[in-house]
Amino acid sequence: MADLMISSQNLTRKFGDFTAVDHISFDVKKGEVFGFLGANGAGKTTAMRMLTGLLKPTEGEATVAGFDVYDEAEEIKRRIGYMSQKFSLYEDLTVKENIRLYGGIYGLSDKLIREKTEQLLDMLEMQDLKNKKIGSLPLGWKQKLAFSVALIHDPGIVFLDEPTGGVDPITRRQFWEQIYKVAEEGTTVFVTTHYMDEAEYCDRVTIMVDGRIDALGSPEELKLEYDANNIEDVFVKLARGAERSDQ
């Protein structure tokens, strides 16, 4: 389908005898905020690495932005944005230098880099900070900038890997307002998190347990299905069920 930005069928990744991602299947639509939830070690980051072309699957099928994860990984990398928990910024470079660097990495022309730099500095209200080194900035400013440079080349989809780790609740909420804005403009947002309350901000979520997708749906659908007050309760019920099945 033309409006599908991600399509995954039985995607699997093994490391020797250990199955990190176990036959996961899901689709993500254009402009959707799609949450990938689970405890640390559930397989979220491994799944994301396969979808971003950084790691080949062991088996299964997947396409991202219409390109195959096995044979067209470089095409995928050019068409996505990516932001990690560490924000991927260079601490010893200034704000302006980081923007220009990432514009070059994503293949923008010098003219477009100059235009984008001014646009981002104005939008983020960072003109007065443009010559400050990243290492001197508060965490919230780093987070906003990292998200913006991940979008500097106008990708159709942006992957956010635990993007709110270590930031305070107010900054987290402000960051989600940024996410909503880009999604409203048509960018698909794929976000991994272990903060269960952040699921409430997503259009749909998956909950991963031990490498498997144990639940998939909108927050309201999942709370209704599992007779839960919130997504954290859903996760606890799924985790307890997994523990019982392993015994």
UniProtKB/TrEMBL annotation:
Keyword Translocase listed: no
Any Pfam family the entry gives: ABC_tran
InterPro entries noted in UniProt: AAA+_ATPase, ABC_transporter-like_ATP-bd, P-loop_NTPase
PROSITE patterns in UniProt: ABC_TRANSPORTER_2
Record SUPFAM superfamilies: P-loop containing nucleoside triphosphate hydrolases
Molecular function GO labels: ATP binding; ATP hydrolysis activity
Keywords: ATP-binding, Nucleotide-binding
Domain of life assignment: Bacteria
Start and end residues of each ABC transporter domain: 6-235
UniProt cross-references to PANTHER family, sorted A to Z: ABC TRANSPORTER G FAMILY MEMBER 20 ISOFORM X1 (PTHR43038:SF3), ATP-BINDING CASSETTE, SUB-FAMILY H, MEMBER 1 (PTHR43038)
Entry protein name: ABC transporter ATP-binding protein
Organism: Halalkalibaculum roseum
Source taxonomy: Bacteria, Pseudomonadati, Balneolota, Balneolia, Balneolales
